[in-house]
Amino acid sequence: MSKYTEEDLKVELENKEYEYGFYTELDSETFPVGLNEDIIRAISQKKEEPQWMTDWRIEAFRAWQEMEEPEWANVQYEKPDFQAISYYSAPKKVDPNKTLDDVDPELLAMYKKLGISIDEQKKMNNIAMDIVVDSVSVATTFKKTLAEKGIIFMGISEAIKEHPELVQKYLGTVVPQKDNFYAALNSAVFSDGSFCYIPKGVKCPMELSTYFRINQAGTGQFERTLLIADEGSYVSYLEGCTAPSRDENQLHAAVVELIALEDAEIKYSTVQNWYPGNKEGKGGVFNFVTKRGLCEKNAKISWTQVETGSAVTWKYPSCVLKGDNSIGEFYSIAVTNNFQQADTGTKMIHLGKNTKSTIISKGISAGKSQNSYRGLVQIGSRADNARNFSQCDSLLMGNNCGAHTFPYIESKNASAKIEHEATTSKIGEDQVFYCNQRGIPTEKAIALIVNGFSKDVLNKLPMEFAVEAQKLLEISLEGSVG
Amino acid sequence: MLSIKNLHASVEDKQILKGINLEIKAGEVHAIMGPNGAGKSTLSSIIAGNENYEVSEGEIFLDGEDLSELAPEERANKGVFLSFQYPVEIPGVSVTNFIKTAINEKRKANGQDEMPANEMLKLIREKSELLEMDRKFLSRSLNEGFSGGEKKRNEIFQMAMLEPKIAILDETDSGLDIDALRIVANGVNKLKNENNAVLVITHYQRLLDYIIPDFVHVLMDGKIVKSGGAALALELEEKGYDWIKSELN
């Protein structure tokens, strides 16, 4: 038969390259590999940081040296050699004032390839964007418009200089330096990231967005994001990530801290598309990330994530529901294909009374990948009438992949109501044939089925992102049924 | 229109169809009846291009074009429609989204642009009214939690939207109560014209009270053993299939 079969599609896709796998020749300044206190001081100095920041880093580094790399996650990989990584790399021609006209033309060309045109960004009025390449924030748009509302949105290095009181007050309050191995490493060496402050009662009029890009070889990316929503404020924040295709594994160890003060609401969405490695499992980004938010009284934090990239993902965006009546939400789609491994989920820590949390996790595994959901719902002794609803659905494609669910529930309060639902299903030949019979080709049929499966989560993304995420799901999974 | 010549087919080395010949012309309604296991559903699956069956001999032509080398979606886009006996569920994909995708894939295959949204909505409204479907029904996930009647009504709704040349109704009457049966049959009759054709596959005569066939064929043990007019269906209803068997012997 001359028919284009799933097998053909599979072959074509295996040979299809990661769309964002290009490398841009930028004139960069990169530190020598290795990690010691001198390197950390050098990073701090490079960034012209105050003494307290340098000390904070050194403290984290000393703690890190005492710590062991965690092994409890359901992933297997060769541990990175931390002395073989360069901890600082920056495109050279970054103007400190960062007006777009001064940006290296090579950088601008790179954004175009990534599908981000900063010129267009300037005209569009619904997204303000910060772009972090390797270790530094290179461009922040809409600063002025935001400043009129008192909103601060800039690279964190800049914030350390311009708003030290805010940074010092909140940095490390949700994810302490010694929280875990990678958080400690990040605290010691973080190079840049985004900082955002929404003043009391302000509804941020546009989506804030950060685009992360690892460009240089042999460098790690350790960004730090700190987002503070003051009382009664609202912000929706998006982040996207890509990296060049490289044979070696690159380390990405970020820390994101969210602080939602009384009556504030933060919506944090991620489309993670780091290079996943090739079809034999070579290369790809190790994505070891700590994300956590703190909710004060009546506050709400929603995490939405679409995870399609990375060779190994280890990530649990969490909410500490400290204030009474606070709400935590976690909506996740994690896709793994080929040899990708993902161990991802959330922690909902209920401390306040009448706190509520919702967890919707959709795991999609294809190829020879392993996809695990790991979640903790913890109800403290004083958290009267806490409620949690968790739903974990897994979709399998083919016979060589795995889906795992590790839900942990710890309740110290008898009034808690905790619900957990889980399903596992497989894309059926009969579903594909049914679509085929209606004129829908196989690859489109799979996309349709997967999008249907992921709908509850896709619906939570801001419009522009939802479309991008949908496309990403299609690209990541085409040809995986067989 | 549809021309089946000496069709032999097997599944997992079991011979099921043993030389089927069938000519369906535009404007005609044919019915294939037969006892369980005669090969009725196999025949419909093979016409639609299901690759779980192996065609060892014979051909299927649609308007003179040999279908055997074509994938199921290509056949569909050339005008073959199969109303499934057991329509599958696709969670999270709404009835509207599914039919939109199907319509636009068909248009793409035929070199047309996507159907404009307002035109699509109008068409959906028109066809869903024909099948007496509730508006809320259109936003539900495809076949998920549908009653037997809803599933079949949805199949005919899709048929109405796609306007196939040849519609094969595989046991469309099974699981239908009398009201649903009337609605479904009424829908089929309204869609019927001199440019298309319908092949009704059924175990019972019941549906044929509503969709009156021009020809009735009896399928037994992989072969068409007897053909006649609408009256043959009534005779089968009355006497069962055994008398044909004895007639054959």
UniProtKB/TrEMBL annotation, chain A:
SUPFAM superfamilies: Stabilizer of iron transporter SufD (SSF101960). GO terms for biological process: iron-sulfur cluster assembly. Residues 47-204 form the SUF system FeS cluster assembly SufBD N-terminal domain. Residues 212-453 form the SUF system FeS cluster assembly SufBD core domain. Signal peptide: none annotated. InterPro entries: Fe-S_cluster_assembly_SufBD (IPR055346), SUF_FeS_clus_asmbl_SufB (IPR010231), SUF_FeS_clus_asmbl_SufBD_core (IPR000825), SUF_FeS_clus_asmbl_SufBD_sf (IPR037284), SufBD_N (IPR045595). It comes from the Bacteria. Belongs to the iron-sulfur cluster assembly SufBD family. This is Iron-regulated ABC transporter membrane component SufB.
From TrEMBL, chain B:
It comes from the Bacteria. Pfam families: ABC_tran. One of its GO terms (molecular function) is ATP binding. Coiled coil: none annotated. Keywords: ATP-binding, Nucleotide-binding. Residues 2-246 form the ABC transporter domain. CDD domains: ABC_FeS_Assembly. Signal peptide: none annotated. SUPFAM superfamilies: P-loop containing nucleoside triphosphate hydrolases. The keyword ATP-binding applies. Belongs to the ABC transporter superfamily. Ycf16 family. This is Fe-S cluster assembly ATP-binding protein. It comes from Flavobacterium aciduliphilum.
